Amino acid sequence: MASIFPISSARLTLMKAFPLLRRPPGAKVTATETVTIFLLIVAVVVVAAYYRAVLFIVVPVILVAVFRFGIAGAVVGLLVTAVVGIVFIINGIGSPVILQASLAERITALLIFLAATALWSFPVAAALAERDRLMTELDAAKARLEAENEKKSQMVVGLHHRLVNAEEKERLRLSHELHDQTGQALAAALLELGRIEKQVGETERDRLHRVHEQVDRIAQAVHRISWELRPAAIHELGLATALANYASEWSAQFRIPVDFHWDSDKLDGLSEDIRMTLYRVVGEALTNVCKHARGATAVSIVISCEPSLLRLSVTDDGCGFDPKLTTETAAKSMGNGLGLVGMRERLALVGGEIEIESSPGSGTTLFARIPAGSAAT
After folding, report:
1. CA–CA distance, 364 with 323 (Å, rounded to integer)
2. What is the spatial distance between Cα 161 and Cα 112, in angstroms, rounded to a whole number?
3. pLDDT, tens digit, 9 for 90 and up, residues 38-65
4. Of 299, 295, 297, 290, nearest to 260 (Cα)?
5. Average pLDDT of span 15-38
6. Given this structure, which CATH class describes domain 236-375?
7. H helices of 178-255, where?
8. What mean pLDDT value characterizes the chain?
9. Which of 77, 110, 242, 349 has a 20 to 30 A CA-CA distance from 143?
10. How far is CA 223 from the centre of its chain?
11. Is the pLDDT confidence value at 288 over 90?
12. For residue 98, what is the DSSP state?
């Protein structure tokens, strides 16, 4: 419901001028606080009614009551002032401010004082009530937004997780198709070429032999692609062995020595998501080395399991890059495949994080960390 008294800038300034006196929105008023302020009002009003020359001391007390209790504080403060003041005036208690004034004139002066006090106390109380209402609505809106953001964040993480799972399933399907269909077709073609070689002359046999070698290379490439899409060795031999084999094959292919170390036999106790994430991150890191680490002569891969953290580091001694580059430029420097962004997203799904350290001419190191709680099966 809208307030009777609109909130002006002067009232807001007054509200800000007494931050310690304001009661926080929604805060409960204790009985002790209520009794204390009530007794303070009564005591100050009695003193002011007896020594009417200092009647103005009622104003700050009513102000305190307004800030602590709102409109109720203003009403009680004015009511106590009116009752005590009228009783003292009627009974002739205290020293009057206007010596020659009649009883009616003194009561009229008191009413004028009360009316003047009401003119500022009620608007201030209304402004405070409006402020409390707005703050309550803002807090409720903030809570709703935070809940919605949390829900959306969980939905995004869940969607990303499903997309990664769908990607792995599609990789598995393509891997099977390449192995079962394309691989078998190429194997059959190699057998047929072998039989044909025995039935032709020397000249045609040399040509068929070259064709046989080309088809054999294609078959090996298809087998390698099928294995990279979904390495069965992770499930059959374990993560450490699969990574060691991958590093060995990568080293033989690109003629760059790879030193692979792991200090724990608990790698195969990790969840499937963790193992596949580590495998993909290592694979992408090695891909980035061969694409962008010009002049690299050695690569080191280290996996360590601590009580509270799983660590992965991939280091090369290549050309490196400037870490002060923008995120977009650095991401391009790290490759266009899964890339830095993709690795960070994959690690985020298992609660991990990634960090890159590099400098021109000093190589690059990729650090990945996964909390032990996320790494557990």
Report:
1. 10
2. 73
3. 788 788 878 777 776 677 778 888 888 8
4. 299
5. 61
6. alpha beta
7. 183-197, 202-229, 233-236, 239-254
8. 78
9. 349
10. 42
11. no
12. S
